[in-house]
Amino acid sequence: MVVMKMKFPFQKRVKLAQGLWLLSWCATVAGATTFTLGCILKTELRRRAEVMDNQDIHIVPNTLMIVGLASLGINYFASKICQDALDAGRFPRWKNFLKPYFAVSCFFTVLMLLAAGLRNGIRFYKDTDTPGRCFQKQNIDRLQMEFQCCGNNDFRDWFEVQWISNRYLDFSSKEVKDRIKSNVDGRYLVDGVPFSCCNPSSPRPCIQYQLTNNSAHYNYDYQTEELNIYLRGCREALVNYYMGLMNTIGAGVLSIFLLQGSVLVSLRLLQTAMEAVAGKENTEIETEGYLLEKGVKETIMEYLDPVLKFFLLKNQVEEGSAAATPTPT
Amino acid sequence: MLLKITFTQQRRVRLAQGLWLMSWLAVMSGAFIFCLGVYLKTELLRRAEVMDNTEIHVVPNILMMVGLVSIGTNWVATRVCQDSLDASRFPRWKLLLMAWFAVAVLLCCLLLAVVVLSYALQGRLEESLKVGLRNGIRFYKDTDVPGRCFQKETIDRLQMEFRCCGNNNFKDWFEVQWVSNRYLDFTSKDVKDRIRSNVDGRYLLDGVPFSCCNPASPRPCLQYHLTDNSAHYSYDYQAEELNLYSRGCRQALTDYYMEMMNSTGPGVLSVILIQMSVLVSLRYLQTAVEGATALEDPEGESVGYLLEKGVKETFEDVKANVLNILKFAQVDPSAAEGSPGAEDAEKPADNTTEKAASPTPSPAS
Fold first, then answer.
1. Is B244 helix (H, G, I), strand (E, B) or coil?
2. Is B185 on the interface with A (CB under 8 A)?
3. How far is the C-alpha of B305 from the C-alpha of B5, rounded, in Å?
4. Within an 8 Å CB–CB cutoff, is residue B178 touching chain A?
5. Which ipTM did the prediction report?
6. A235-268 pLDDT, tens per residue?
7. Measured distance between the N- and C-terminal CA atoms of chain A, rounded to whole angstroms
8. What predicted TM-score, i.e. pTM, was given to this entire model?
9. Which of A27, A68, A212, B33 has its CA 20 to 30 A from that of A10?
């Protein structure tokens, strides 16, 4: 049972080899692009490493980089093979190389597809209970300004923590003493947010403090005010950002996967078509090309056999020795 | 002859091949110059709202124009190279090459001018930014006036992105009313005091917008009552450095654009070098091939040179040619007198040509 048999006259073989050469160079470029995409994603994830909890997510860019490099190699060899394909004298030297080459290429292509699907399990935003630390303050401020978000889930998270360091509190003041006495832990809690929550699109100068007190500001209503500060939480903002990034990269990788797949299929057809020509005097005859000589299942068993033998999972050596021992007796 | 070099056939072929490659390199560098111009123009247009005039735009405009012309010119050079070793096709380029050299020299001069201009226009850029930023700060509060409603957002985003505050420094904000009247409670005593404190009745305060806040400061940002030490705990107005951005936006933007233009300097200079080498090589190729075609054996040795005569004599020649061309364009009184005579002389010439033409049919008839 032959898979996908096609007839190949001489002209068609030549056209196939030329087209495949061009396609494999495109695929080399695509492999380089995959590698670059992996690097970009890795750098982006590194930049936010301090607010990310889960280190497992790094497997996605690592896989992309490996697959990109492997694909560069695969497609380079593919172009070399097609250059030699139409020269009956030089083609046979690739004969032994091709079987393992196809196995490795299929493996990497499937790996590429898996990497595009690994998007689960992102947990961001280490909880910032004490944002009074020097570098932490700067990081959170820049994060909120860049992603246009405020707090973990929303701006009210800032009401529940003391985000003003004790160094800048006048403990002799009545107001400070009242606030500290108002809760069990003795924290200075305010209904205010840092300046980095301010939204520049607001038509009025930013209101940071006494947010819940309508009478503290002229013409201000806490419930209806939307533009004053960012309403979105930073967790949601970061997740959206990285999802967007992964989606774009995923789409790119899928298209590169399709390109790589078509290169492999064409190369296989060319190889089988050329093999029929080998040894003949007239190299311009019509030959048949196919994808797989036997069915899919049988081909997989054929490829896995040497691997299994190597790992001694199939006890062929023992069976052979057991069968051999009775004969001398 | 200036800078003579002898060329064998082999050397001519090598020169043509090398020049072909270099011309394609020059086409790429022309495209690079064009892209550089486009990038610079986009960056300038992004901040167009805080610039008063567009004088600085002459730099990216020249870059774009030179890039486009250079792509075309060097493409012509590649075609000339391809035809140079074919003796039948080369002569048709003869006239075009003179014009080509002039254009190539002009391109190099324009690129040099761009490098000079990018330094010279720094003062004009600063002036333009000074006026633009001053207006931006004045109209900051006018978020309800059509045409100016985005000034607040523009200035806020500018200050946050470039880490600057005000025009020269943050004190510029003390001199304008940047809080809109819509958000001022005119019944309050504080507001009434402040409005009475100056002639124009503006609400001035010693405070800055939130976009001036520096995230690197260890303490939460202090925006208001900046000059009042007693208004904040452990605060000294004179000694405080990290609270707000200390740089003015005019300085920040000027530095940004100057750095961008300076970094393009080496690129532009190398493109000038490439263009000059293409020009020199093409001149050598032209003279060598012309010399070879004049010989009896076209595959023999010929001499290539830069200029046939010395620099001064060539200059005189070119000047005379240009004046001649200009003379033909002018209406000359001596030519007007001569023209009736010339017309009479032309008519019998026409008759003779007609007579010469007419006998030919008669023997046939």
1. strand
2. yes
3. 6
4. yes
5. 0.70
6. 888 888 878 877 877 787 788 778 888 888 888 8
7. 43
8. 0.70
9. A27
